[in-house]
Structure formats: C-alpha cells, structure tokens
Here is the input.
Amino acid sequence: MKVGIVRFPGSNCDEDAYHAVVDHLGADAVFCWHKDHDLQGADLVILPGGFSYGDYLRPGAIARFSPIMQEVIAHAHRGAPVLAICNGFQIACEAGLLPGALLRNDHLKFICEQVHLRVESIGTRFTSRYHIDQVITVPVAHGDGRYTADANVLERLEGEAHVVFRYVDASGHVTDAANPNGSVRNIAGVRNAHGNVLGMMPHPERAVDVALGSDDGLPLLHSIADSLMAEVSA
Amino acid sequence: MSTSTTASQVLPRPGDPEITPALIKEHGITPSEYERVVEMLGRAPTFTEVGIVSALWSEHCSYKHSRPLLRTLPTEAPWVLQGPGENAGVIAVKDGIAVAFKVESHNHPSAVEPYQGAATGVGGILRDVFTMGARPIALLNSLRFGPLTSPRVRYLFAGVVKGIGDYGNCVGVPTVGGEVVFDPSYEGNPLVNAMCVGVLREEELIRAVAEGVGNPIIAVGARTGRDGIHGASFASEDLSEESESKRPRVQVGDPFTEKLLLEASLELIRSGHIVAIQDMGAAGLTSSSAEMAARGDVGVTIDMLKVPVREEGMTPYEILLSESQERMLVVAHRGREAEVAEILARWDLEAAVIGEVIAEPVYRVTEGDRVVAEFPGTRLVTDCPTYTIDAVESPVLAAARARNPHDVAPLPQEDNPIWTLEQLLASPTIASKAWVWRQYDSMVRTNTLVGPGSDAAVIRLRGTDAGVALCIDGNGRYVALDPRVGGRIAVCEAARNVACTGARPRAITNNLNFGNPTRPEVYFQLSQAVAGMGEACRTLETPVTGGNVSLYNENPQGAIHPTPTIGMVGVLDSLSHVTPSAFQSVGDSIVLLGENTDELGASEYLQHIHGLAIGAPPACDPVEERRLIDALLSAIHAGTVRSAHDCSDGGLAVALAECAMMRRDQQFGFEVDLTHWSELPLRALLFGEAQGRVVVSTVAPDRVCAIAAEHGVPARVIGRVLPAADGIEMLVGDVSARLKLPALARAFHDTISDIMNGAASAASGAAPDSLTNS
Amino acid sequence: MTRYRVAVEIVPRRGLLDPQGKAVADALHSLGFSTVGDVRVGRHLVLDTDAASADAAQAEVRRMCEQLLANPVTEDFHIGVAERA
Amino acid sequence: MTRYRVAVEIVPRRGLLDPQGKAVADALHSLGFSTVGDVRVGRHLVLDTDAASADAAQAEVRRMCEQLLANPVTEDFHIGVAERA
Ligand SMILES: Nc1ncnc2c1ncn2[C@@H]1O[C@H](COP(=O)(O)OP(=O)(O)O)[C@@H](O)[C@H]1O
Ligand SMILES: [Mg+2]
Here is the structure.
C-alpha cells in the first residue's frame, strides 16, 4: 500500500504519520505538498495533525482551500480511503468530507494526554482489526476538539453507526470525566456515509510503540491495509 | 557600494532629536560610556547611532556586568563541539549525531504581558537552536511566580503557561519538562526561562559568522514593525512604574510564521547556498548584523530603505531597534540570491537583500545614499566596557543564614508528621504540575520516552539507540541564603535528576536571573553563585556551553531571590537504560543512596509551614555528588534498578510519597523503617533537604548496596513497595506514621488545578483564553 | 473603485454551548460585576476592500463570509454598513 | 434596574502585528477576492447586564473592559450603545 501524507503549511504530525506508516506498518509513504495537485498514486491519504495556517480564523478553515484538497476530495469521492487526524479531522469537516464541526474545548485549554477510546463499530475498513467495544489507549493533543453537529446529523451518525470511537473511562463507560473536550455524546471519531473517510481527534500515529505509551493505533493502520488488499484481490 | 577607506560623512537626519545628556541617560548610556563612543567615532554620535549603542551596550546584549564572571566557567570537554559565543552550544552524542541547546529568559516582557511575553520567549530560543542547523526536538521551561493566592499572580501564571503552550504546540516541538516555583520573592517580577534542544548531524553545524566580501546580507521572514523597540534595554532596567509607559512596546508572536521559518532555515542551511544565519533577537537587526560582522571580523553595510517594513514612515532608528518577531538575518553566497529566494518562496516567506559584507572595516547603516550610522571596525561590539563591582554580602541575608532552624517551634499539628507531609505535598511548589503540562503537547515528534512529571525527560534520537535526558533546575532560596553553595547545588541537582533516568550528565546551559548588579550585595550573589556553579561543573565534567543573563530582576519590594537556572543535558548510550522515577512493582525493595543528615535550613518545610527563608542551605560536595552519580549509573547499567528518584524539595518523606503516587494512573503504597537515623531530629530526617540522596526501588537490594559500596556511597535498604490499598507506613524508632493514599494523592495531584479552576477563573481562565481567537 | 471598510460580526449560533462566553461571565462575577447575565463571545473582523459602491462592498464581504469567514455549521454572521476607509 | 444588552468590539491595537488578520487577508486573496486590503481580527462580545440607565450600563461595561475583557497592553475596545434586552 502507498500512503500519501498531505503537508500543509503548519502541519506538524506529518513526520509522525510517516514513521508510523513506514517504520511500524512497513508500507510506502510519500508527502503531498499543499500547493501541488498530485497525490502521487497514493492508495490511502492521511490528513495529518498540526496547526495548518496557524489555526487562524478557525482550525482547518484556510487549509481546506489548498490546491491539494481538490485532489483529496476527488480521491474521497472515488471511494478511496482518507484518514483525517486531529487538525486533519478539522480540515475534513471544513471541507465537507465529514459532517459536523470541532469547537474550542469546553474547558478552553489545550489538552495533551492518553485517553481511552471505545471502538463503536468494527464494520469499517479502519477498525476491522479491533473487536467491538474494545477499549484502546490513544493520546489526544488539541485545543479545538469539541465535536458538534446538529440534531438530525447526530441521529444519522448514531442510527447508521457512523460514530467509530467514543471517549470512555478505563472500564469502557461513557462518562463526562472521560470526555477530554466536551464533545457531544463523547464522540472522538466519525466516518462518512460511504465509510471511506475517518476523522478522529486522537492520534493513532502516536500510538504505534509501547515505548511511547501504547501501540493500540497499529490495528487501525493494519485494518486499512487489509481493506486495500481485499480490494486488489477482489 | 562605497569601499572608500575614509570614514563617510555621517549627518543627523532631519527631525532627529538633539543629542542631550537627558537623551543619553534615557538610552541607559552612562556619561563615561558616552565618552567612549565619542572617542571611538572621533565625533558626536547621531540619534541613530545613540540607539545602536544603547542596544548593543545594554546589559542584555553586552553582558557588561557578567562577562568577567562568565569567563571563569569551564567550557570545554572532548564532546563539546560548540561552546559559549554562538546562538547555542553543541555537544556530540553518538554516531555523528549531536545536540544543540540553549536557555533564554523573557522575564520582563512576561511581567508586562504574560501570554505574548512567554510565547515570544519560546520563539526566540527555538530560533537560537535552529540557526545552528539543528532541528528542535524538545522545549523546557523554568518559571517563578509569587504566591498563587494573588489574582495577579494567577493571571500571570495562566497567561505564561498558555503562551508557552500555544507557541510550542503550534510549531510542533514537544514541551517535555520544566519547573515552577511559587515564592513571595518573585511577586511582581516573575521569571520565565525557556530552553530548547535540537538535533543535528555534526557536519551540519553552522555558525553565525559573516564572511566573504561581496556576499549579500538578506532579511528573511516577518516584516519589520514598531514592535518592542528598546526591548533589549527594557530587559536591563528595574521593573518600575516607568515600565508601564513601555507597555505598547510588547511584541506579538506568530508561531505559524516561526514554523515556516524553521523549515525554510533548515532547508537553506542544508542547501549550501548560505554562509551564516542568525535570529534577529534582542535588539533585532542591530545586534544580529553587528554580532555576525564582529564574529567574522568583517565590515558590513546595510540599507534601511531595503528592509521590508510593516508600517509607513519608519525611521532607521526604529528599523534598527525593532524587535518584531520571526525574522532572520542571512549571509548568502554571492550569486545565490535567486536560489535562496526560491527556497523561501516555497515556504511563503519574504526575503530582501538589504546589504553586503564589505572589505572596508566599518559597520555602516545607510538610508539610500545617505549614511546614517557608521562605526569603525567591530569596535561597536568589542569596545563595550565591562564592570566589576566590589561584592559585599547583604547583612540581612547573612543573619538569616545564621539562624538555627531548630529554634523554630513546631506547630502543634506537626506532632503528626503525616499532617506536615500532606501540607508539603499540597504546597504549589511541590504539588504536581500536571495542570501546566497537560496544556503542552509533550508527545509530538513521537520520540518522548519520558515526558513531564519525572526527574528529567528522555527523548530518543532516531537512527541511533541513544537518547538524551533533559532537565532544568534551580533553587533561588538556597542561593539567597548562600550563593556559593546554592550555585553548586543548582548544578548538582540538575545532574542528579538526569542521572536518575539512566543518563550520564554531559553539559549545561544556564540562565542567571539576578537583581541589579551595580548593588554590591547583588554582585556578591552573582559572583559567588557563578563560582559555585563553576566548581560543580568542573567536578561533574559538565561544561557550560552557553546560557543567558537576566539582571535587574527587581520590583518595588526589592530584589528577587538570586536564581540561576541550570539546563542539563545527559546522554543515554542505550535506551535499555531508561529508568523511571516512580515505583514500578509491589514487593520491590526500597534503597536509599546517600546519607540523611540534620540539615533543615533553607528548606521548603520552613518556607511553606513556617513562612521562613532562614538557615544555611544543605552542604553540597560535588565530589560526593559525582560518586553518587557514578554509583547510580553503574547500578542502572547493571540492570538492578527499577526506579530512581532524587530527594529535593520537601526531603526524604516527599520523595518517597512522590515515588508512590506521582503517576495518577499507577499508584503504590510503601513501608519504610528509618530507625537507623532515629537520633536525628524527626523533621530534619523527614523534611530536611540534605543533598546527594536518591530513592531507588530494586529487586536486587544487595547488588545495589554492593555497587554503591564500591563507589564509596552510603546505601541502605529502608523498606519495600506495597499495593496502593495498603497506604504508606513510616517507622522511626517508636514513632510510626500511617496513612491511606487517597488523601495524600489528592493533596499532590489536585492542589494547583483546584486553585486555577476554582474561584480563580477571573484571573486565570478567561483573560488569557480570550486573548487568543483561534 | 473606492476603498470601503466593512465590519463583520461572527457569533456562535444560539443554542450552541459558548464556553468562552461562560468563562467571561464567571470571571466578571468573581470580579464583582454581579449584574452581568448572559455573555456571548464571537469574532469581530474589519476588512478594507475596494468596490464600486457601498452595496457592492457589502455584497462582496457577504460572499467572503459564506465561503470562508463563518462556519455555516456553527456560526451566524452579521455584516455592518460599508464606510469609506 | 433594567436589563440592557451591550456589544463590545475588541481589536488588536494598530501597529501591533495581527498574524490572524494577515492569514485571513492572504486566504481571501488566494480565493480570488483580490480587492481586499488590510484585515484585522478581533473579538465581538455581547453582554447582558442590569443597570439603572443605558449610560450606567455602558459605564459598567467600560469598567469590565478595563479590568478584564480587553488586554490593556495589546488591544483597543469600542463599546456599542446599550439597548434594552
Ligand atoms: N550565563 C551564561 N553562561 C555562559 N554563556 C553565556 C551565559 N549567558 C550568555 N552566554 C552566552 O553569551 C552569548 C550571547 O548570549 P545571548 O545574547 O543570550 O544570545 P542570544 O543572542 O541568542 O540571546 C551566547 O552564546 C550565550 O551562550
Ligand atoms: Mg528531582
């Protein structure tokens, strides 16, 4: 599998995504420059974390208009996989690839810590290597991670199992204390209707090595690789 | 451009204020310094030249009161690739990999505008490191504030922390450690010291030395505005009512542009198109151009009309002294201007050729054809006078040191040592700083093996199996009560913290935060503290590769505690040696390395429980510290150590409690029997801050004690690790103290967040948060 | 073409939690401003733009708001009158 | 006492760098809004407060700005008219 990691001005988790994919997953990866129109034949596109355009105005609001985003949107519309992490999630929402929006954390502070996530749906190309309700440990690091969407969107997300990850406590319970940013219904990650775009505030690319505190993010990357293999052989 | 060797005609610009004694004084230039200038120029200086001199001869840029002292510090070792004098120091680590590191203070700007003051401090130290050709891999910070009971202090604290976090988080450099101390002496004059560490291949090292006649001088990055004009001399004056009037001069940081500048600068350096690059830091264009020229012993000429400005009608004076952030000065190879511009354009950065290196030995500033300032050779930098003051110890502090801590009557509640322990764990200086570092991205770059909350952070270096251990430490109260000993302790404690992670201490950077050096008692503190630091650095073989001096840290109430902060870099040759501070598993033996003594002076116990800064600080013998570190490292390398944590603020009892519960998610109990020391006064044994002690947990207590013995270090098994449910038990002769963990853990973990999230929100949350719109 | 200055107010949509507004209200209370009730915090932009007329300037700024300045999911915007800059 | 609603505009002081304004201006340009010049980004607050009169409400809000809402070092503020909420 070939992974295209988009590099916006202000991206700063691009190299981490690269090391996760290349060193830990063993896949190929290339960087895609925001000014280009070329995804270099990537099977999977990663919109990495960081502070594209300094998060000025609104996180993701300006990056969404980068030339490369036209290609990313086309890639998504072809049904090809896009993994949008943290600032990438914010960009994906601004670009309309995913429903809802990410607002300033309810406590108004940046927060960096390991959190527990519950896998809400394994019927996706991103989560097949997990088991349902599995509790995984993945770090968050953001100031604007409070997921919100209007009532009917939320109903659809829940009804059609588009909520992929929820913030929970160590024993897997959805509690306010386990919610690091005030996200509605503890939502940490959602997918689009077609199931090929996943957005999440937590950083799976930082959870690929027990020496760093967790490797619970690896199955996510492996799941995507599996799904691409399946497509090829299909 | 002119290469005539006859000095050019320098005429005052129309509209320049007239040069009066008042104007000279206002620029912080003494009459005798003015004499020097006139003698150097052979004429009276113009207004522009007065501005240049005031900046370059300010304490901040010239070190005129500290340089003679700094010269006494050891700066060499086989692994030192770059010592003091450059933007940052550099040491070799392993396999051709080196690290660059430096600390910088932003005390005065942060006192005026905490958010921007701290943020731009981080920006400046990042630039100092990446202009050496190093990619920043870690940030640390050392902070001092007055007591959190004051709303203004909470506002400063919250603003500084948010400023540091927002800047480092945005640039994508993990903030992995630091320290925060709350003490009345810093009320009104907080200290904000930021340290940055970067990694490079030895051959990528570049120095900020201008050379090559005809090479173009290029201004890169943000446009020049009227920001922080006189920031440099501002940072060299007492904080007083006057500083109020300087308020509009604060600088605003732009971490987004900094990130672009970081990537573009590293690309430029690797490209080979440039000769030298330097941050336009304190005193902006003036100091960067003059310092680069002086280092290369060449002449330069720069044209103010070519500098990209943000505002109309800026005078040469303003352009030269502006401290607009996120700007660099680059000397490129002649003929490579286009290549340089192209790289910068990729990163959406502006660049303008503003001058060139010239054969003629002058520092010349023009405004088109008009020469507005000209100094002969490099004398502008080299001729700055240095001063040595007669040092006299303050009788008040001498008397405070002479007081015997045992004359201080214990409070009734102290009959129960657990009460005292709980009080100390709830002292904001000792309590967990998680409220602070949860606001810092400590994990970005995915190399943080040990993050905030331990004795020192450990960052792995990709491409090797080596890592660096980093910490920044300093105890102003010790230095106030005995600067010589305090200086030694600052270095030794930093080394101990680094060694506890399994790393060999290798070198330091340091920030000297002191009061007004022209006062004999302050100069006494400065000279003694530097002497003490030097003694420790020599014995521990941790040379000084750089640092920063911040003087005139005073407020209407007087001088702050003299506070040298030590940024220590240690090296782990193998990551298999990384050792945590916290206990790891039930049943492990607890061994104390080092000796308990009857030393209660200058302790956090006296400060926090009795509100007293008295008594002599604990003795510190660098030779013993060296032995302790060697013993600890051999034990760790022998694979016998599960965890290691040094005893510092709060003494042995606090160190043990921290080992048990510093990790919220993984706590332990313990039982210790200290009867061996029952002849010591109980509070000295439990809360005294005797140096050279480390609490180790191990499965092989005999091996650890044997290894310690080989190094002549006292070692004794004092107890074992228990499940959290069993709580803690301390036995000293017939005194026994027990406690369940939750109460202690709450005291330790919640104190600061309770204060900051509680009623304090007026001064904490809202104001700084509403300062940022993103 | 004339240069106009147009102010834009972008506010969190009513009904959405506004923690910044709440923090400001709490802070004001603890400073003793007991009469303060609800507080909302939004963005205030001032744009200079060249246009043929004040109406044209406003219309242009409206397009800017729809495309970039306001998030249709969470924010409402209000455009002030265009004044000659 | 009557309840008044007062709007406050807080903008970065002229002359101080406004990175956010610059970023927005650049973004608008690349979106083709070529006529846009200077852009400043500040905060817009709407406060409800009880006061005896509109003037009293404004005066109260001015104190709030001076004590908390605006940063005296980096920002200027402008208080709108007080309207009955
Ligand atoms: N306390 C100190 N000990 C040793 N060297 C120092 C100290 N303070 C400053 N220096 C050195 O003096 C030089 C100038 O310091 P400084 O002006 O802080 O650099 P910068 O221009 O990066 O701010 C630097 O190389 C710095 O390492
Ligand atoms: Mg320590």
